Transposase
Amino acid sequence: MDQAEFRTFCLSGSNEQACIQLFQRARWPDGFRCPRCGGSDACAIRTRRLPLYECRSCGVQTSLTAGTILEGSRTPVRLWLLAMSLHAAPNGISAVRLSSIIGTTYKTAWLICHKIRHAMSQGDQKELLTGLVRINFAQYGRPYNPTVFRHPQEQPLLIGATMNAQGDFTYIKIKQAVEECSFPHLTCPLNKHPFLEKHVSPNAVEVIAVTLKYSKDRNIRLIQLCQKASNWINYTFNGIGPKHLQAYMDQFCFQYNQAAQEHSPFDTLLKLSSSAPAMTYPELIRKPNIQPELRVQYSTLLREAC
């Protein structure tokens, strides 16, 4: 069914059980597996809103949503699936618009959005750039300084991509990069560089990285991709601060990578959401804000330039 039909399906309370079964198949495609012992034999306790399974081997009870991004949520599963479908769409959705569609408070919708992005980020962590790899400096925020120095409101990024023999980017990553972009150039060995350590396979055939802001060797296509991501964030969400910027960049990359690999974004997201660990509201709001580090760095650079 298309997105409009799926939206109507999920908004109907009579389809909650069908949505529960869909999420259950995504979590256990080969049948129930006990998270402790791996056993497949369990009895189901169905007197609750969501099924609870008790392993016959070790006696551990496991909820359908335990250990997933839905853990602890009182929002119906059908509304979670609708939110996943809307996030898997090319343009995504803001928390304000989502709250009006699924009928929750803004806070609940905001938390659902970030939990779904958390699932996308967890999936991205398992993938490494490999083969022919291209990496380039980029930034989020308009250029306040037309120099090599960086203004505190300019958010430094590194964009990396796996490139095929035809020159097409088949997988991309965009990461906030305060540490990497503090270097005037790629000063440390490739195998010691933070971005490469985290996001590039040690078996990559060729790695070309440019961290200079105005290098003559910069990859224009990568920079344009970052600009497209920035425009999407500004248009859909009216701009994002540094604290949660990475989550939105991961969502943009998820959408790009699913299209490049011709996968079903919703099916992939449903699978990721059923396996990614839960993230709570306190964990989200306690995320560190890297902006103060940028202010210190900018002040230091100005003093060194004088």
